[in-house]
Amino acid sequence: MGLQPFANALLLRSDEAEERYPLSLSWCRECGLVQLNETASPEELFSDYVWVTGTSSTARQYAECFCEEALRRFGGRGGGYVLEAASNDGTFLRPFIRRGHRVVGVDPAANIVDSAIREGVPTKCGFFGSSVAEEIVGESGPADIVFARNVLPHVADVHDFLDGLAMCMDAETLLAVEVHYAGVILEELHYDSIYHEHLCYFTLASLENLLGRHGLKAFDMLRSPISGGSIVVFARKAPAEASEALDRLRDLEAARGINEVRQWIDFACRARAHCGRLVGLVHEEKAAGRRVAGYGASARSSTLLNFCGIDNRVIDAIADGNPLKHGRFTPGTHIGVDSPGNVIGTGAETVLLLAWNFEEEIAGILRDELGFGGRIIAPLPNEPRVYSLGACHAAGSRTD
Predict the structure, then answer these.
(1) Is the pLDDT of residue 58 over 90?
(2) Is 376 within 8 Å of 389 (Cβ atoms)?
(3) What's the pLDDT band for 45 if we cut at 50, 70, 90?
(4) Which residue of 119, 121, 283, 332 pairs with 5 in a disulfide if CB–CB is 3.0 to 4.6 A?
């Protein structure tokens, strides 16, 4: 995907100097894992972070569902604690707190850890792995539930990370690992989810392979709405009978060839073709005299904008609900980021929905809170679509 800046490295000035790094994927012949060829320094990527989980109402609602699903599968002794690796602002630990459970969070971003602690979520600052796990177990013993959501693909040393998870578990501990599902990435063309923070892109087969190497046995799974389509895999140290849902997904992967290299070669060709079609749609809007703004200065937007060459000459500004991003500029493409009210209220006629995985949520904000009735470009999944927000767009609506 060429040379790209770090996707979350928003700039303080539009003319600020920035580094660019190669961004490319490989497929492993031994285990079928799809992974980046380049590994960036975790300290550079995560020590001061601007993604805050609680910004999204979709994430907050899903946190309640996730808690219920985990507790339903736990069924153990109780009386212990719930541990989340890479807990961000504690959004996914709060439902456990409300149900009376003791919790521990771990996250490397000092700015977000401080915020979580102020909001009543006990959180350690650090990169989760075997050394942090040893501290936690020494203080509190094994956990009842351990979970790691949307973090495993970000981890450079996955084996130390899995060692840490296993250290915090005993025979009754429930482990839940959530990843953006590579099967959805492949089939719905989520090439915008490829950036330097995401080192690995897991199918069920490649994730089970990794868990198994650390003595962890998957027994169940569920679908998650996060990232446009994720899976949560539940595992324990002791073997357990596989659920129907887990067996169905295993069979589906085999039938569709999701773990075969030919599918990923086709994915690369489709991504290049999609880029050309999206650029054409955006330039048609500009040629018609319409002002184009973006919505969602997410990491995935950085990949999309840089890969497609859509920069500040094309997009006037990008709206985002996270105040940590306001007044900054997108990496590589140097588009200013501001609040939704300031961006949409200054005459935008077309909105490029960069955070398209929250399409329904953002459409509601645009229509109901900002009074926007103009045109929407939804770049993904699959084919880019243009529609008027004032008209019915049920065919393109998503709940994730």
Answers:
(1) no
(2) yes
(3) low
(4) 332
* Arithmetic mean of pLDDT, 27-45: 83
pLDDT mean over 368-372: 94
**Would you state the pLDDT for residue 52?**
61
Residue given tokens 């006629």 in the structure block: 349
Token pair, residue 257, equals 């060839």
Q: By the 8 A CB rule, do 118 and 181 touch?
A: no
Give the model's pLDDT for residue 44: 63
Position 38 scores a pLDDT of 87
Q: Three-state SS across the chain?
A: CCEECCCCCCECCCCCCCCCEECCEEECCCCCCEEECCCCCHHHHHCCCCCCHHHCHHHHHHHHHHHHHHHHHHCCCCCCEEEEECCCCCCCCHHHHHCCCEEEEEECCHHHHHHHHHCCCCEEECCCCHHHHHHHHHHHCCCCEEEEECCHHHCCCHHHHHHHHHHCCCCCCEEEEEEECHHHHHHHCCHHHCCCCCCEECCHHHHHHHHHCCCCEEEEEEEECHHHCEEEEEEECCCCCCCHHHHHHHHHHHHHCCCCHHHHHHHHHHHHHHHHHHHHHHHHHHHCCCCEEEECCCHHHHHHHHHHCCCCCCCCCEECCCHHHCCCECCCCCCEEECHHHHHCCCCCEEEECCHHHHHHHHHHHHHHCCCCCEEEECCCCCCEEEECCCCCHHHCCCC
What is the spatial distance between Cα 341 and Cα 30, in angstroms, rounded to a whole number?
A: 50
One-letter amino acid of 166: A
Domains in the chain: ranges and CATH: 33-258 (3.40.50.150), 278-396 (3.40.50.720)
> Using one digit for the tens of pLDDT, what is the confidence trace for 252-291?
999 999 999 999 999 999 999 999 999 999 999 999 999 9
Q: Name the residue type at position 369.
A: E
- Cα dihedral across residues 135, 139, 144, 147: positive or negative: negative
337 has a pLDDT exceeding 70: yes
